[in-house]
Design brief:
The complex is a heterodimer of chains A (147) and B (160). Chain A contains two helices and seven strands; from the N terminus they run H-H-E-E-E-E-E-E-E. Chain A has 147 residues and is an alpha/beta fold. Chain A has a five-stranded mixed β-barrel. In chain A, strand 1 and strand 2 form a beta hairpin. Chain B is elongated and about 50 Å long. Classes of the chains: A alpha/beta (147), B mainly alpha (160).
């Protein structure tokens, strides 16, 4: 049997290639992780009508809202949407008020995307007046269908 | 998992692959970069044979870019996003396929090799520029005002 000798240069080259390949795999991993995280944040189960009505103040909540009116000072009103499938939501009769401010993270869009007719996924806390104080608003317009 | 996940993941992986694809020729032949990294080959194999990772990454890139375009189109819904960005991406996709042809010709060409290499290089730059514009106009990363908090959340999930 013949034995292949590996010189120090070849060892170094192998190590460099290993690091380069590891960096690429890490980047791909981050890309897949970020896509999955965004996907989950877009499709997290929205509360149904009854559940939302019974939620106590101070409770963390995730809802999907079709905006009817929005004001620049950070209040938006709309209808609560109920999840049917990953990409189809149905309108409910429940009205929802969401308050947001400069601390609210706006994902998948900009402030300008919060307008009447837009569909948003809101993560926040139920206030005493039963409005939702938004911590994060994900713009879903165009990604989901409302029936 | 929904079509958003597949569209986003294929798009990001294709973007990474564009960078890898552009770097590979400089790593696989004797260049300032390969010498600095200490991986410059001592010509045990002809250059075109050593380039096989570049060829396969090119085919993979074309397939991923096609899937990235096909998934949202076949789902029948395109989000309210910049049409300019989508047209630029379409142009980039066309150029990726053209680039494959340039690459195939380059493997055989002798007389026209120099002009083909220059064209291959400038097409790569054009594709990269178009993809960057597409990311800026249609990508979720730059559209998000919370990019820094995403990065922070990612780092925190590993550190804490």
């Amino acid at each position: 049997m013949t034995e292949t000798k590996v010189g120090p240069n070849q060892n170094h080259a192998r190590r460099v290639w290993f690091v380069l390949i590891a960096v690429v795999i890490l980047l791909v991993g981050v890309a897949v992780w970020d896509s999955a995280r965004m996907s989950v944040s877009m499709s997290a189960a929205a509360s149904d009508e009854k559940q939302f009505a019974q939620t106590a103040p101070g409770t963390a909540i995730k809802i999907v809202v079709e905006i009817a009116t929005s004001a620049t000072e950070g209040t938006l009103k709309g209808k609560l949407l109920q999840k049917k499938t990953e990409e189809i939501y149905t309108r409910t009769a429940s009205g929802v008020t969401v308050r947001w401010d400069t601390q609210t993270k706006i994902v998948m869009g900009k402030e300008a995307d919060i307008h009447p007719g837009a569909v948003v996924h809101v993560t926040g806390t139920v206030r005493d007046d039963h409005a939702v104080q938004a911590e994060q608003v994900v713009i879903l317009t165009g990604y989901v269908k409302v029936q | 998992m929904n079509s958003f996940f597949y569209t986003s993941a294929t798009g990001w992986i294709a973007s990474i692959l564009i960078g890898v694809e552009a770097l590979l020729p400089y790593l696989l032949r004797r260049s300032q970069l390969s010498e600095r990294l200490g991986i410059a080959h001592d010509r045990e194999k002809p250059f075109l044979q050593r380039m096989w990772p570049h060829y396969w990454a090119g085919y993979l890139l074309a397939a991923l870019a096609f899937a990235h375009a096909w998934i949202p189109m076949s789902a029948g819904r395109m989000p309210g996003t910049s049409m300019t960005g989508l047209w630029l991406a379409t142009l980039a996709l066309g150029l990726i396929f053209l680039q494959l042809l340039f690459g195939l010709f380059l493997q055989q060409a002798r007389e026209t090799r120099r002009i083909l290499r220059v064209t291959h290089f400038w097409t790569m730059l054009l594709i990269s520029a178009l993809v960057l514009l597409h990311l800026g106009l249609n990508g979720t990363l730059f559209a998000s005002t919370s990019f820094h908090s995403h990065t922070w959340l990612f780092l925190r999930s590993f550190v804490l």
